[in-house]
Amino acid sequence: ALVSTQSTGIDRRIITVDGPRGQLKKSFKHLQCELVLRKKSIDIKVHFPNRKAVACVRTICSHIKNMFTGVQQGYKYKMNSVYAQFPININIIYDNTLVEVLNFLGEKCVRKVNLLPGVTCKPTG
User: Fold this and answer.
1) Which residues contact 102 (CB under 8 A, 6 or more apart)?
2) Gyration radius (Cα) of the chain, Å
3) Any idea what DSSP says for residue 78?
4) What phi and psi, each to the nearest 5 degrees, are found at residue 64?
5) Residue 13, Ramachandran bin (φ over 0: left; ψ between -120 and 50: alpha; else beta)
6) What are the DSSP E strand ranges found in 1-125?
């Protein structure tokens, strides 16, 4: 079901969802289906479906539902670092925009990960 705080558009199997947290676009051009925007829902039609096409319908529904969740509430991911033999060291530097991983699998080189804009990282523990 569509919510009034977001706007949705469909143009040639490309779905655009706008919400308070931004805009998302996803293309479903590789699938042989028809997407129709109604007032409160999106209809997905497949003509003469085989087993593979029927499975794709549920996948499209899940993708669209995740897009709505992303623009309304956003997502939060938690990552834990664990080790068995080599103790891993993680540093968060440059105003929480760069993550350094030291001693990963006993390596001498330092792995650096730049975070994308809008991504925050907080150390706990």
Assistant:
1) 88, 89, 90, 91, 110, 111
2) 21
3) -
4) -65, -40
5) left
6) 7-11, 14-19, 22-27, 34-37, 42-45, 89-93, 98-102, 111-114
Query: Tens of pLDDT along 70-116?
Result: 998 988 888 888 888 889 999 999 888 899 999 988 999 999 999 99
Residue type, 103: N
| Sheet containing strand 22-27, strands side by side | 7-11, 14-19, 22-27
Which of 7, 5, 52 has the alpha carbon at shortest distance from 25? 7
pTM, rounded to two decimals: 0.71
Q: Which amino acid is at 4?
A: S
Per this entry, what is the length of the chain? 125
Cα 61 to its chain centre, rounded Å, is 14
Q: Which residue has the tokens 């199997």?
A: 13
Identity at 28, one-letter amino acid code: F
Distance from C-alpha of 14 to C-alpha of 26, rounded to nearest angstrom? 6
Phi, psi dihedral angles at 105 (to 5 degrees): 55, 30
pLDDT digits (tens, 9 = 90+) for 13-27: 899 999 888 899 999
